[in-house]
Write a structure and sequence with these properties.
Largest sheet: 10 strands, mixed
Structural class: alpha/beta
Helix content: 25-40%
CATH class of the largest domain: Alpha Beta
Radius of gyration: 20 Å
Number of helices: 14
CATH superfamily of the largest domain: LarA, N-terminal domain
Number of strands: 16
Strand content: 15-25%
Order of helices and strands: EHEHEHHEEEHEEEHHHEEHHEHHEHEEHE
Length: 386
């Protein structure tokens, strides 16, 4: 029965964080003495350069607290992350992580050096090129930021492991798995591979920053920060994502990485098997959390014989840039795996979108640092309940 530690925490004061995180690890039966002489990957969510108050990335003091606990127990922390567009060096430099990395003397792994991880039990995917640093580690600490997400509904421990795949290669996966259900299955194959197929095997501990989180159109600048006031920890990514979703009052049936994760029986097959230690879900539950809108066409009622340009334009949300906010930085163009975005033709001061080629992965919306891209409803989307 997987343990999920749930502890109320309302601020990012370093001493308070360290106390909460130590207690969280103890609650799930993890002895910090295991860090002794261990090389420890400490993976945050560093989606893009962002201010702490936007709740887009794992809070830097949360990260510092974990790193200090590792070091105090004679472990060697290694920062491993691969942002989708910006270089890791730039994201660190443009965020509070620069000060943390310098003051804590943290090694930063090169995310472009990869190795193939084989997972014969994969449902759809059996091979993954991930950062070599995961293979070199003795322990992996996965530090997700709890956020809403336009594709996966919510993003937590399972989704954060997507960052093991280097840079723009992540956006290309949306071409290979354009259906939301299939993308969730890909993420679960990756989760299964990293959890069960690493040789030698190594513990993965998920420690979630759910103090200040994102609601609405997360996980990027279009989302809205709000307090959830929680720190969670577990050795099971499915279980921790379930508990976090329940605190936020989300519709768990829409969180496909959780419901399909239960079906995979990755250490847990139902909520009844999860043992919450510390505070209760009822203690920290909120009633007014705003989910991502997503698109109901991707529910289990539908599959993808409808993947035609006409169908997508009439029935699905499409990403639309705003002239008022767009700075023509073309990060959207860079991340677009389908080549649907090109430079401005001059008619408007926004990139040109070919909606026939657009696969509706919304990576452009997620990565836009100006929150200049919004979803515009398809003309007949109402017919499908969207």
């Amino acid at each position: 029965m997987p343990q999920v530690s749930l502890i109320q925490c309302s601020d990012y004061t370093l001493g308070n964080l360290k106390d909460k995180i130590r207690t969280s690890l103890s609650n799930i039966g993890f002895d910090v003495k295991q860090f002794n002489n261990a090389r420890v990957v400490v993976k945050p969510n560093l989606l893009m350069p962002a201010k702490e108050e936007k709740a887009i990335i794992t809070n830097s003091e949360f990260y510092r607290a974990v790193v200090q606990i590792v070091k105090e127990n004679n472990g060697t922390p290694v920062l491993v992350e691969s942002p989708a567009i910006h270089s890791l060096e730039r994201v660190i430099k443009k965020t509070a992580y620069a000060a943390v990395v310098k003051s804590e003397d943290i090694e930063v792994a090169n995310p472009t050096i990869t190795r193939t991880l084989t997972y014969d039990a994969g449902k759809k995917f059996k091979y993954f090129d991930i950062s070599q640093a995961y293979f070199d580690a003795d322990i992996i600490l996965n530090l997700p930021k709890f956020k809403t997400h336009g594709i996966t509904y919510m993003t937590g421990a399972v989704k954060l492991l997507f960052g093991a795949i280097p840079g723009v290669e992540k956006s290309k996966m949306h071409l290979r798995v354009p259906v939301h259900d299939d993308f969730a299955e890909f993420l679960l194959d990756l989760y299964g591979a990293m959890t069960y197929a690493m040789i030698p095997s190594k513990p993965i501990i998920h420690i979630m920053d759910a103090i200040s989180v994102q609601e609405g159109e997360g996980p990027g600048p279009a989302g809205k920060a709000r307090k959830l006031n929680a720190v969670l920890a577990s050795e099971n990514g499915i279980a921790i994502d379930y508990v976090a979703s329940m605190i936020a009052g989300l519709d768990i049936d829409k969180a496909l990485t959780v419901v399909n994760g239960f079906k995979r029986e990755f250490g847990v097959s139902s909520p009844k098997q999860i043992n919450v230690v510390g505070d209760t879900i009822k203690d920290l539950h909120v009633d007014d959390f705003e989910p991502a809108t997503g698109s109901s066409i991707f529910s289990n009622m539908f599959r993808w014989p409808f993947n035609t340009p006409m169908f997508k334009n009439l029935f699905l949300d499409r990403p639309v840039p705003s002239e008022e906010k767009c700075t023509l930085c073309y990060q959207c163009k860079k991340i677009c795996a389908s080549g649907a975005i090109t430079s401005s033709s001059g008619k408007k001061d926004i990139p040109d979108y070919d909606y026939k080629a657009c696969i509706r992965c919304y990576c452009c919306l997620e990565i836009c640092s100006e929150a200049a891209i919004k979803k515009e409803r398809g003309r007949f989307q109402w017919m499908l309940g969207g």
